[in-house]
Each structure stands twice: as structure tokens, then as C-alpha cells.
Amino acid sequence: MMIRLENVTKVYRVGVERIHALNGISLEVAENEYLAVMGPSGSGKSTLMNILGCLDRPTSGTYQLDGKLLTRMGAGGLASIRNQRIGFVFQSFELLPRLNALKNVELPLIYSGLGWYSRRRRARAVLERVGLTGRMKHRPNQLSGGEKQRVAIARALIVNPRILLADEPTGNLDSRTSEEILALFDQLHRQGQTIIMVTHEEHVAGHSKRIVQMKDGRIWSDLPRHEGPPGSADSAGGEGGSP
Amino acid sequence: MKLPRLPLAFVRLLIQSVFLALGQIWARKGRSVLTTIGIVIGVASVTAVIAALTGLRANVLADFESIGANKIFVIPDWPDHGPRQHAPWKEIMLWPEQFDGLLEHCPSVQHFSRIDHSGTTARRGEDSLDVQLIGIEPPWHEIENRFVTAGRPFTLIEHSAARAVCLITAQVRDKLRLDRDCIGQRIILRNRSFRIVGIIEPAAALGIFGGGQRSQEVFIPFRTSYKMSGGPIYGIAASRSPELSEEAQAELRFFLRRQRRLQPGEPDTFRAEAIQKYIQAFMGMAIMITLIAGGIVGISLLVGGVGIMNIMLVSVSERTREIGLRKAVGARPSAILLQFLVEAVVLCLIGGLIGVLIGQGLTSAMAAIPQAKLHRAYIPMWAIGLSFGFSALVGIVFGMFPAIKAARLDPIEALRHE
């Protein structure tokens, strides 16, 4: 298994109160899976994403990525994991406004210690891959929402990540642009990319191959999505799964 | 916080950080320049002060050069310890006969003259003038390198018989409204009439000691002077060469100790000092001024540093989301620390550069004022190096806290920041 979470919990302290964001999550994700994590707000799906993306550490339980135990790693070690194995796509793109598309995409490679030339070469290649050949020198404020998200996806892909983590990637986009971005995800998945996506929209989740429903910090259901046209997918079930 | 493993990766990150910092500063030009004002003022003032002192020092060295590097003064002085520490003046003062036979016993000394130096008023008819009255012996001309330009020097007879003759400077002649050719005319010194036998050339104009007063001099034979005043006297000697100065001083010391019957182990009751001593004294003073100026500059650098810290804290909080993103894509805390530290240092170095340029402007302005006599002033390379070094240090010291704050930001919190 590429990703193996075992009995992961996350407890936050807010003042004297303790908030159990995750209540014993066990999850396995294999290579080239396309997983959608769904659930109402407060269900713990963002916390799960943060832990999967090595931005946060679980309070208890273990997280293995490619057989490597990440739970006891320090801040520097987790930074390297994020740098080399994980690509993030955020709802609000998170592009640096003063840098053009190329430089935004190069950003992770700066922290890999790569030289200028190879950074530039790889950034060009990956921008071509997401279909932004003509937009490389544009700054974020000169790009449309869909183009911005393509830049963000290119930035996530430039390190050839093991997992692509997307947090509501279409949340800030109109429906037509959303479909374009989702089509890009589908294409990446076909090329072998492992994708984990957080969403609360049925039609977005409809692009995935497996849907994990969360509620109150637990996995409520974990079902493969049956093949069919997007949107007509199974309405996330209440029965079965692992409560 | 570990540094990246490869030195090459670290160097790349450093270069990247410098470009990033320059971009960041350029994007906020006005604010950045205002922030560095403390550093600018500090560096500008320190470079200007150092330049002025350098100019002054060059003047002093040139002055001492003209006085003569092989000149040695022998002056009476109380020892700073021992039984004679509070001895009466009679035991300390030099007597003319103590110098008898000096040249035979001090082979490194080429010339020696006893000097009886006092102030008095020279009169001629209605005119009077405050002058330096200096009793000299024949070798004085060689030691001071000042010769008679009109008339003649004292004869040996005039010296040994203590005649009432004098040599005057052209300035004394003019101030007393004597004839241009005044040889043979008389002036009154200490109620005694002296015949002028010659005009002596003025002392080389000194930048710092005020040449004007010095050249109002009247010279009379030493014995004539000593008979009238009874001292106190001192001696000046010239070593055979500047290199022999130390040896000449040692010989003079040995000779005078014997003449004054000082017991072995007893401290000297006089000083035999070369002109270098005074140069050293000036250098000491210059170092003091530099230190005081350094202290003032230190305060302004401190104020400047606090300004830098403030702007860096603002910068960190403005760019919280950016820091969050950089961390999310794999920036280690050390990389973020480096980025902000480099930005603070670059900001300070820019301040230092502006400061040095303004300091150069001030120096050029100083050098252009003729009365200031600072035409030799310039900013030495080490002062420029020091300025940049201190600027960088201020950046590191005051940039450290904001940089640590940035490095410790939690990426999740930072990305949520508005």
C-alpha cells in the first residue's frame, strides 16, 4: 500500500476544551487511486488532508507513506517529504502575486536545491502538460480563475509527487471551468497519478473512483464508485462502510 | 533546524534568497528607504568622522615631518613613583652644567642645544609685542633647520660672553614697525636693550598648532637668557639619523642619570623623548575621538536596527500566507529563516551603501572648505569595509527575531491567515 493510516486521531486544544477532529481513522490508498473525501464541514476532512499532506502530525496513530513511517519525523523531515512526494492544490490557488506563472511553478524546486536551468526546463514542461504554453510569463492577476488553478496544478506536479492532494479545487471556479479542471484531473489519473481530493460537491466527487464519506471525525463509508456518467454516481450511502 | 544537506543547495538557496530580498525591497522602495534611515545616518556620520580624522592625521604627520623626525626633547619631570615623586622643583629642574660634555658621551647625538624658553614683551619706542623669548646655542639652527636669512647668526664670542644681541623673525620686525633692513637697530627685552644682528626664517607653518603665534619669536644667546631668567631650561637634541633616535634617547638618559647622580633602580627625574612620542599621543587622541564617534554611531545603528526589526515584523505578518505556501511546497524552517534574515541584511547593506555615499559627499564637502584644512581627508577602505560589516551585523541581529518568527509559523495557520 502506498498510504497506510492506522487508527489516527487528532485532538486540538482550544482554551480548556479539547476538540477531537479525528477519532481513529484507518485508511489505505493504493497507487493510482482517485479518491474523493466528502463530508459536512467540521467532519474532519480538512484535518485528514493536512495529515496526509504532512502539514500536520496526528496526536496518535501511525502514518506510513511508501512504507516510511512519517509520524515521528521533525519539521525539517516533513518539509522534505512535502517537497518531494506531495503536491498540493488549494481552493484559492495560493499563487504568489508578484511572480509570473513560470516562477510560481518553479517554487517547490527552489527548496529541492535545483539549479536555475533545470528549474526553468521542468517548469516549462509541466506548464505545457496542463495546457498553459502561451501563458508562462503572465502574472496571476493576468490569468483567469481556471488558468490560475492550472498553474497551481502545474506547481503541484513539478516535483512528480506520489500523491496529488486537492482541497476543493473547483470551489472558486464557475461550472464550465470546473469541468475543464476536473477533466485535467481525469487525464492525470489516466497517466498514473494518485489523487486525493476533498470536495462537498457530488458532481466533483463523481469524477473519482472511490468515495470516502466522513462524519464527526470518523470514516462513515468508504465505497468504490461504480462506473457511470459523472453526476449519476451513487448517492453516498449511509449503510455499510466502517463507522 | 538543519541546513540543507548539500552545500551547493545551500548556496543556491542563499542566492535565491538574495534575489527574492532585492525583489521584495524593490516592490516597497519608499518604505524600505525610510526604514534604513537610521543605518544611513549612522554609516554616513562614522565614515565622515573617520575621513576627517584621517585628514587630520595626515596633516599632523606632515607637521611632525617638518619639525623633524630625529629631534629629541630633554625635559625635567617628576617621576611617577619613588621617593622623588614629590621632590621640590630644585631637585627636578635641569641645570645648564648638567649637559656639559654631553656630545662626547652620547655618540648617536649629532647636535645638542640648551633652551631657555619664556614669554615676554618686546618694545621699541611706542610699539610693543608679546613674543616668545628663546635662549639658544649655536647647534639650534641645525636641529630646528631654521637659519638666518639676513644679517648673521650669533658669533661664538656673543654666545660665550652672553652679549645683548638678538635674532628676530620677519613677523616681529613688521609688527614692531622696524625698518625692512633692521640689522643694528635695538629693541627692549626685559628692560634691557638688545641689538638685532639678523632675521631668522619662520618656523614651518603647522596645520594644527597655529603657526601664527609661534613665529613671534625673538632669539638671544642661551647664556644671556639664562643670566636674566635663571631657567627653567630644557634641551633639544638631534640624533644622527631617525633610525638612531632610540639609541640617542638611551644614551641621553644614561648620561643625564649619571650627571644627576641617580642611584640604580631610582626612576628618572626627566624625560628624553623623541617627537614620535607626541605622534603617538595624537594617535591616542584620534582613537579616543573615533571611539566616542563610534559610540554615537552605535546608538544610531541601534535605533536603525529597531526600525529594521519593525519593518521585518510587518513584512512577516503581511506575507504570512506566502510563508504558509512556501512551507507547504517544502520550504524547511531554515530556508524561511534564511530568506527573512537575508532580506534584513540586504536592507541594512543598502542602507550602508547609501550611508557610505553620503559620507563620501560630506568628506568631499569638508575637503573643499579651505579653512578646515581637511584637504587630505578621505574614507579609507577599512572604514568602508567596517561600515558594511556593521550594517550586515545589525541586519543579522535585528532581523533574527522576525526571521525566527517566520520560520516557526505553522503552515496550516499561515495558509488560513487573511
- How far apart, in Å, are the first and last alpha carbons of chain B? 27 Å
Helix segment tally of chain A: 7
Greatest contact pair?
Answer: A-B, 26 and 29 residues
> Any idea what the CATH architecture of chain A is?
3-Layer(aba) Sandwich
Main-sheet strand order of chain B equals 2-3-8-5-7-6
Oligomer: heterodimer
Radius of gyration of chain B: 33 Å
> So what's the CATH class of chain A?
Alpha Beta
Question: What is the helical fraction of chain B, as a range of percent?
Answer: 55-70%
SSE pattern of chain A: EEEHEEHEHHHEHEHEE
Please give a structural write-up.
The complex is a heterodimer of chains A (243) and B (418). By secondary structure, chain A is α/β, with parallel strands linked by helices. Chain A has one domain: Rossmann fold (3-Layer(aba) Sandwich). Chain A has 7 helices and 10 strands. In chain A, helix 4 packs across helix 5. Chain B is of the alpha+beta class and 418 residues long. Chain B has 2 domains: 194 residues, no CATH class; 204 residues, no CATH class. Chain B has 16 helices and 10 strands. In chain B, a hairpin with a 2-residue loop joins strand 2 and strand 3. The longest helix of chain B has 44 residues. The radius of gyration of chain B is 33 Å and the shape is elongated. Chains A and B meet through helix 2 and helix 3 of A and helix 1, helix 13, helix 14 and helix 16 of B.
